[in-house]
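User: Hi! I'm working on a homework problem where we have to compare a predicted structure to a textbook description. Could you give me the structure for the chain below?
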Amino acid sequence: MNMITFITTPYTIDPLGIAYLSAMLKEGGHQTKLVLTSELDDTVIDTPIVAYSITTGMHGHYAEINQQLKERYPAIMSIFGGPHCTFFPEFAREDGVDFIFRGEGFGPIVKFADNYIKDGALDTQKIYDTPNIAYYDGEQVIQNDLAPPMRMVELPFPDRQLIYQFWRNYQNPIRNVMASHVCPMNCSYCFNKHYKKLGYNVRLRPVESVIMECTRLVKEYPTELIYFQDDIFPIYRADWLQSFCSNYRREVNVPFHIQIRIEMLFEDNLKMLKSAGLHGVTFAIETANEITRKELLNREISNETIIAGAQLLQRNHIKMRIENMLGIPGETLGSALETLDLNIQCRPDIGWASLYTPYPGTDLGDKCRAEGLIEMDEFASDFFTQATLKLKDKKRIERCQKLFGLVCAVPQLRPILPLLTALPFQYKGVYERVKNLLYTNRLFKI
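Assistant: Happy to help. Predicted structure tokens:
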């Protein structure tokens, strides 16, 4: 038996990746801990292995934390997983990084822990043969083969005890659940297309497993809303959806929120979802320009379909959040304002906008690099601070993004928005206050 300490930043949304890994390790006879980065200075790390789940943009932050930690505890071994490690295995070269995991680490992390010798010595015959790992041998990054994806019936429920050990998270009335793994779409700005090339295809959890997990959450924790984190909730599978709705209504009976593609929503499946307790929906427009949406972003959907879907949700009194992406190649202040206008026409509870980040390895990210469109070659740590591409109206587009949610909620401000974007303000404080207000009083108000 070995002990692994997971390290992550403070969170509001449940870190389900870590929770699943912890559940797998415990099922395999190991023990786990979770420490927040904000508490590291006051916490003694008494386990032989520390683990991080990282995304692109935050990878540098975690690498720095790991270096500082290894200065205090030279004997610990560090392992990293998550999307950044999957698509950028060169991260294994970073100082202090012992091993990274590519792809799904549910089974491989248990195998790794099984092969680790507690006194710190390594049995190279075993540990270096662990599937999915990559490591730097001093000359090159060695990448082991990937294990086959786990069947959904084999996956235990996430370790809620681990992630709800902090009172703030225990008391959060919103619980996060996954009903499926891997998005079925292939948007050009996302890694999903390449993730599927690694052998990870769309997999739906059995309905009875999803229902049982939701039932336990409602029974064991203060729960007012269940938020399904799937990139696209499986409304595209009529048989699965019908079974889910009938069982959820009967056994769970707590409002829930889902993320969808609006072109997949129709009167019949919306009625089923509403009867089961659907409270809200999130879907993406990204941009108002239909040609750009189709040819650049690989999202073939008309504005007419988007507006019709929004009206369908309004008629059925379902709360609505619309996601958008400003700062894409060719963006101008005018095109950003057109995207805002389409949102206003849809009348969402929240119109939400991020700033595009051209990740290398994605189709659109590689296109931006090939065409010399990137102004700053650093990965952004978030999608809400600074535009990355060379854009004619860059500063004004950034200000438009900060004011997007406010103007969408109060359309009377739309006529003066061009003036506001011309003023030399960052509007970061306005953005944060409006976001908190809208999420609390609009989207998640039960």
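For your comparison, note the following. The mean pLDDT is 94. DSSP finds 18 helices and 15 strands in the chain. Good luck with the assignment!
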